[in-house]
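Researcher: Go.
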Amino acid sequence: MGNNQGGMNVKKNLIFILLFLTIILSVYGISQIAGSSGIKIEQYIADIELKENGDMLVKESWTYLYPSGYTVRYRDLAYDKYDPYDPLTQSRQDRAFIDRENVKVRVYDGNGNPIPTSKYEVKFSGQMDERGEIIECEPDNPECLSVFVRMPEGMPRTVTFDYEYLVEGAITKYKDVAELNWVLLEYFEATIQEAKVTVTLPNIPALDIMVWGHGLSDGNIRPPEDSKVIMDINKIKKGEILEFRVLMPANKFSVEDKNYVAEDMRNVIINYEQKLAEETNRRIVVAQIVFYGTFAMLAIMLFIVYRAYIKYDKEHQPKFTGKYYRELPADYSPAEMSYLYYFRKINDEDLTATILDLIRRKYLILDENNQGINKKDANFKLILNREKNLSELKSHESHLITWFINGIGNGKEVTLNQIENYPKQGINNANNFRNQAAGFVRKAKNEGMNHDFFEKRIGIEKRHLLTAVFIPIIYLFIAFVLNAIFNIEYTFTVIASILAGILYVIYISSIDKRSINGNEDYAKWKAFKEFLLDFGNMKDYPIPGIVVWEHYLVYATSLKVADKVMEQLQVKLPELVEAEGLGTSTYLAFGYYHPRYRYWYAWSSINRSIYTARQNQFQTIASYNASKVSGVGRGGGFGGGRSFGGGGGGSRSR
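Model: Structure:
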């Protein structure tokens, strides 16, 4: 029996640890899709051709999976080249432009077939949408062209948008180098699952091409080929930026005067990009340290939890290991037994058990109230036995007598109907009944505390253990500081640290442990419960007398197995009655000749009355509170790094 108990505790804590990890991993996964619109972007392909005059022709293809309900897509094409945050030399006259007359849009279905232009409309910035609102980029940018596509009948499940547009003056020419520094995407509806960007240059050898990428966590730029640069991207996460910079020989381009800056910038740009690369590599290293350090922090917390379980939460091994215990393990009251058995908890059944125990000990006398003990739902009477010394009672027992006999009854007796109806007689009675019930629980717990049931120093040890919650707090603070310095991704660390701290506090606060003596008694009570459930199958077991069974059944009530015990006992009871008669019984044989006796006539009557009284208390208080809420009205009832390139924009849908 002791091994079984230990196994249950190990199982409980293993479940907690698995739940600990599952919640952290689940929330991290959920955080990656939080705010998702349900849209999926399967592919983004961009073919870019650089012209010798400094213009850039872009052909884009977007493949979407739309849920139902969407009718509109915006492609915002920003072309502003000047960035006030760019530390390198710039010219305010170095401007680009996109003429909407040079923009072409085509739409295809999931099979690659063109969708007729009669099925969709295309508009641009400054025009009115179907709502009567002006179409504009978001956020509003004067150097941005928004391309509006609307399909009144709704977007197909799979749809591809092709865009072709010319960016005039995209390339900036310096004295010693020509540069394309451009942001293709700043925002979009969802993670782009796959992307590829190809840049074709005007007859430039590979050795004369230099290229850098920015803003992505999972991208690769192939070594330049003659007149070509290719960027392969596995995913572009929502919130990332697709930005790149290409350096080319200046003599290959003849740009307008406004796109010429009379500065030597080649080495300046290369040095700047090398610095960015070093910072990016440093940021990657820091991000990896923080990420893997999070697992180390979690491992430390789990180790502390395991040590706390072994030292402070794992129950002592009891000396008694038998399956059955065939006599009462101790002589304390049923409510005190519950305090031990259910870890400091007092249950509703303990009220009924205490009444039965007081009847068994003859402090209370169960009386038929002149109704006949065979009457269904008889209104029995509880009479105070004046011959007994009430000072010998424990505090919760004397509280119950004062509550029922003096508070509800007339100081001498009380009927079951009086107990049931008392909470129905106004809010004051209902509140008093609730307060008296709380007083019973409080005093029963106080009696339980007088025993050596639980470890005395567990509270002090728990306070010491709680100091370990500063481990995830300090780690989270370190992650905050590193993020402020290096701008790293640390969502997982934030979620893991917060959850680790919360779950650790919850677990440590829940730790409770029976003392050696308390656990020994618990093992015996548990075996006694098994005995009560199985005694009917023990052919060699001599059935004790009625008095003993009345004592056993008091505890069976608190152990929540009284009904199952009675089902077995009703087979044996006739033999006991024939041998002993009914004179020794205080409640067990009460109503013995009732045709429905198998339901345990006296117990069911008392238990039903207590249950009904509790329900009446809840209903009266709830009705009173509802009336206060509804009374205020007339009705009633229910109350990494940036190169600061030009361009930008993104995509939106609705």
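Model: The CA atoms of residues 404 and 414 lie 7 Å apart.
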